[in-house]
Specification:
about 290 residues, alpha+beta, Nitrilase/N-carbamoyl-D-aminoacid amidohydrolase, six-stranded mixed β-sheet, 7 helices, about 30% strand
Length: about 290
């Protein structure tokens, strides 16, 4: 569990054609493996980034028939790596897609799947508006899997704004927290680094976040800046806005070291809210017994 390994984040600028994306991203994955990466992560929406719902549904298929997924499984086996597809858009029902992550082992087997739980339904100050819930079916559970170097927890993008997910994953033994993303430029400028470093620090865990970057064929502008953050909040590697890879050597022993210095996972207390209309007019937090 203390053996070091090399992690690589693939930064992309996903187009509207899954075949084009497969070719370009496949080359970057090969580059990462050639540089010694044992674990390679791609961003959210690896296969297609489409703003138009009709265009998306004309392109995507069910998981079992997805050419990209089958090709990436074969590539992971060929290269002998753990390949984490940050997410693919796949058809879940006739009128809903799933934003689904896949963790693939060096034999090409799917170790874990995760459907994005939190839907990005927001109106930004610059006029951008997003309604993921109109297209995607939200997931209902987080996912965790065992790698040779420790446990890894799977989440996607907007999930990072909900710290309870990561605390639950850390309490379940996750040393590595993943947040592949297609972050918007305005929210990226304001919050990207702060959120990722916070999730690492408060849980004493590595954070791996491959990102989309630049202006896409769909006209969407994403922030980029793929990050690898260590359990003390130090940025080990960072991308810019163009497609490429970032790589860092990962020492799992840093997890135990950080959690030993700041043992917040041991000190956590669960509370419920009670007596909201008490005599002082204040909310009272009542400690739950465990």
């Amino acid at each position: 569990m203390n053996e070091t390994f090399t992690a690589a984040m693939v930064q992309t600028r996903t187009k509207l054609s899954p075949d084009e994306n497969l070719k370009e991203i496949g080359e970057l994955i090969r580059e990462a493996a050639g540089a010694g990466a044992n674990y390679v992560q791609t961003p959210e929406m690896t296969n297609i980034l489409a703003a138009n719902r009709d265009q998306l549904f004309k392109t995507i298929v069910e998981e079992d028939h997805d050419k990209s997924l089958n090709s990436y499984r074969a590539l992971a086996k060929e290269l002998g790596i753990f390949l984490h597809l940050g997410s693919l858009a796949v058809r879940a029902t006739p009128d809903r897609a799933a934003n689904r992550a896949f963790l693939i082992d060096p034999n090409g087997n799917i170790l874990a799947r995760y459907d994005k739980i939190h839907m990005f339904d927001v109106n930004l100050a610059n006029g951008e508006s997003y309604r993921e819930s109109a297209t995607y079916q939200p997931g209902e559970a987080v996912a965790i899997a065992d790698l040779p170097w420790g446990r890894i927890g799977l989440t996607i993008c907007y999930d990072m704004r909900f710290p309870a997910i990561y605390r639950a994953l850390a309490e379940a033994g996750a040393s590595f927290l993943t947040m592949p993303s297609a972050f918007t430029k305005p929210t990226g400028d304001a919050h990207w680094h702060v959120l990722l470093r916070s999730r690492a620090i408060e849980n004493g865990a590595f954070v791996f976040a491959a990102a989309q970057g630049g202006t896409h064929e769909s006209k969407r502008l994403t922030y980029g800046h793929s990050l690898i953050v260590d359990p003390w909040g130090e940025i080990l590697a960072e991308g810019g806005t163009d497609p490429g890879i970032i790589i860092a050597k990962i020492d799992p022993a840093k997890v135990a070291d950080a959690r030993g210095k700041i043992p917040s996972l041991q000190h956590g207390r669960r509370f419920s809210i009670a007596d909201a209309n008490g005599p002082t007019g204040h909310l009272h937090l009542v400690r739950e017994r465990t």
